[in-house]
Amino acid sequence: MEAIMTTPASGSATFELAELHSSKMLEKASCNGKLVSVADALPADGRPVLALRRSGYNCCGFEVLTARYMPEYRPFSPWRDISGDAVSDSGSAILAWMYADALLVTVDPR
After folding, report:
1. Are 23 and 42 in contact (CB under 8 A)?
2. d(Cα 56, Cα 105) in Å, to the nearest integer?
3. What gap in Å lies between CA 66 and CA 53, rounded to an integer?
4. Is 0.85 topped by the overall pTM?
5. Alpha-carbon torsion (40, 43, 44, 45), positive or negative
């Protein structure tokens, strides 16, 4: 987990996300059902993912939520929850993510 933690020298998680986006660091790794650190790769624009972040609750250290990375829509706050609100409005920044198409993407049965 240490590889996905915010480093003191970089400042805030928002700064780190802006740095990642400005370096055009997009989906470089095949997820294969494993969490990918935001420091290693970012998901395709607008594609739903399961995202991991630190929890603000006493009962658990981390929480998982459905989110989308949308840098074109909101460059300074690209992580959006599934309803389109900024993830940062309801808690900590995203640390890692994974595609979960089988759970998240509905397929037209036609």
Report:
1. no
2. 28
3. 11
4. no
5. negative
**64 three-state secondary structure:** strand
Residue 96 has pLDDT above 90, yes or no: yes
Copy the structure tokens of residue 3: 């590889």
Residue scoring higher pLDDT (83 or 31) = 83
Q: How many CA atoms lie within 13 A of 22 on its CB side?
A: 8
Q: Are 23 and 73 in contact (CB under 8 A)?
A: no
66-78 b/e (C-beta count within 10 Å ≥ 16 → b): ebbbbbeeeeebb
Going by the DSSP 8-state scheme, the letter that residue 24 receives in this structure is: T
Q: Residues 6 or more apart from 70 whose CB is under 8 A from it?
A: 45, 46, 78, 79, 80
Interatomic CA distance for residues 97 and 109, integer angstroms:
28
Q: Which of 54, 105, 47 is nearest to 80 (CA)?
A: 47
